[in-house]
Amino acid sequence: MISSSLIHTCIAVFGFAIIGVNLILFFLDMLDMIILSNIKATNISNYVARMRTFRQLQIINSVYNQAIRHLFPVITLIIVVVAVIMGYVVINLTGSAPHALVINAVTLNAAIFGFIQLAFPIMADLLGKSADFIMILELQGCSNYRKRQLRSCRHLKIWAGSYFFIHKGTRVTLLELIAYYTMSLIISV
Predict the structure, then answer these.
(1) Contact between residue 126 and residue 156 where contact means Cβ atoms under 8 Å apart
(2) What's 160's DSSP letter?
(3) What are the Cα distances from residue 174, in Å, to 64, 119, 120, 171, 179?
(4) Tens digit of each residue's pLDDT (9 = 90 or more) over 15-36
(5) What sign does the CA torsion over 105, 106, 111, 112 have?
(6) Burial class (CB in 10 A: 0-12, 13-18, 19+), 145
(7) What secondary structure does DSSP assign to 68-89, as a single string?
(8) pTM of this prediction?
(9) 184 or 24: which leads in pLDDT
(10) Residues 100-110: what's their mean pLDDT?
(11) Cβ atoms of 24 and 65 closer than 8 Å
């Protein structure tokens, strides 16, 4: 009974995660496009269009972060709890649990680890690419007005709750938590 409810919950979580990652891929594609146009052209009309596009991305990023600010930590907790329980099922209950449950646990853990390995670096790339965009515009040299405009640009980030944003080390930290709590559950039960 627990396994079926966990699997159904994970299906919903993965569905929302796929939608979120697709939105982040849109951000990255737009940033790539305006970074490449930065390198190729330097006239004022292109600068205004690139800056307008970046400002629009900032607005969308802000709305995205407001929408997932309370949802993202809960989804991450669900993923960690499911990975720990399914890891326990795979390691300790292989002989006594039904084979269908063990196969589902292995499949679900593989999907969770694959999602963590693929999605979190994509989320972390958003920060790097937005920093590249701002740096390229700063290196081009510009008037005082453009310098003020560039100082007002902030990096695009995916916030995980109110306290920290996704960066390159988040993936390793999440995998470390899953391994630690799985081993703690196996040792204690």
Answers:
(1) yes
(2) E
(3) 22, 12, 10, 5, 9
(4) 888 888 888 888 888 888 877 7
(5) positive
(6) exposed
(7) HTTHHHHHHHHHHHHHHHHHHH
(8) 0.77
(9) 184
(10) 85
(11) no
- Average pLDDT of the residues of the chain: 83
Residue for token pair 């629009």: 56
Judged by DSSP in three states, 141 sits in: coil
Strands (E), the chain: 159-160, 164-165
Read off the tokens for 152.
Answer: 């007002």
Phi and psi torsions of 165, nearest 5°: -115, 165
Q: Indicate the pLDDT class of residue 184, thresholds 50, 70 and 90.
A: very high
Residue 151 half-sphere exposure, CB side, CA atoms within 13 Å?
Answer: 7
Task: Give me the amino acid identity at 138.
Answer: E
5-12 contacts at long range (C-beta below 8 A, 24 or more positions apart): 6/82, 6/85, 6/86, 6/108, 7/104, 7/108, 9/78, 9/82, 10/78, 10/79, 10/82, 10/108, 10/111, 10/112
Structural domain boundaries of the chain? 2-188
- Burial zone of 104 (CB within 10 Å; 0-12 exposed, 13-18 middle, 19+ buried): buried
Write out the two tokens for 13: 């979580």
3-state DSSP assignment of residue 167: coil
